[in-house]
Amino acid sequence: MAELQLDPAMAGLGGGGGSGLGDAGGPGRGPPSPRPAGPTPRGHSRSPAAAAQQPEPGPGPPERAGGGGSARWVRLNVGGTYFVTTRQTLGREPKSFLCRLCCQEDPELDSDKDETGAYLIDRDPTYFGPILNYLRHGKLIITKELAEEGVLEEAEFYNIASLVRLVKERIRDNENRTSQGPVKHVYRVLQCQEEELTQMVSTMSDGWKFEQLISIGSSYNYGNEDQAEFLCVVSRELNNSTNGIV
């Protein structure tokens, strides 16, 4: 039988397992076989180069407060004081200055913005509070420190017609109340006995009200019983009319 001869140059091409041919340090070793693709076997860690190739997760989309986003909110710089509100609030009066400026972005209204992005409005911030609160809840609330004429001036500037009518009505009511002068009262003093007191007080009408009860400290015999006497003070508001005092 013929004997098989192996070429020494081919000794390094054998598999790495079991034969002992092609020593690791020998000159006859060929190129290493490629590692099969797939997950890393358990118990072996990935090389630093492989870990560096893994992409890191980037930042997610920005969260928007209230679900509507930051575009819902508007910053107003009124005379150096900042106010924060929503476009929905400013849009309740479509013809108003604020709605045209912040919601409709009317090109005819050229307003600058400060470094924070707030709209610059050269008006008194003291009287802007009642204006903004009216747009929020539809009620006119004016503190004692504010003059109604000042709120009216701002309402006319911002072109809020419903608020202008409301402020004018309040000013007119206050003027009518002042022209009538202070409220006056008329008093009556009624003398009655003890047994008549309850009936007299319960039957008072036409605006009369009980004010004071005074015992006059005298009694007299009426039959077999002693009857005490009282003075009952009642009052009624005196109304003024255009024809004079009634």
Automatic annotation (TrEMBL):
InterPro entries given in the database record: BTB/POZ_dom, SKP1/BTB/POZ_sf, T1-type_BTB
Region (Disordered): 1-71
Protein name: BTB/POZ domain-containing protein KCTD2
Stretches with biased composition (Gly residues): 12-28
Composition bias type Low complexity, residue spans: 40-55
Start and end residues of each BTB domain: 72-175
Composition-biased stretches (Pro residues): 29-39
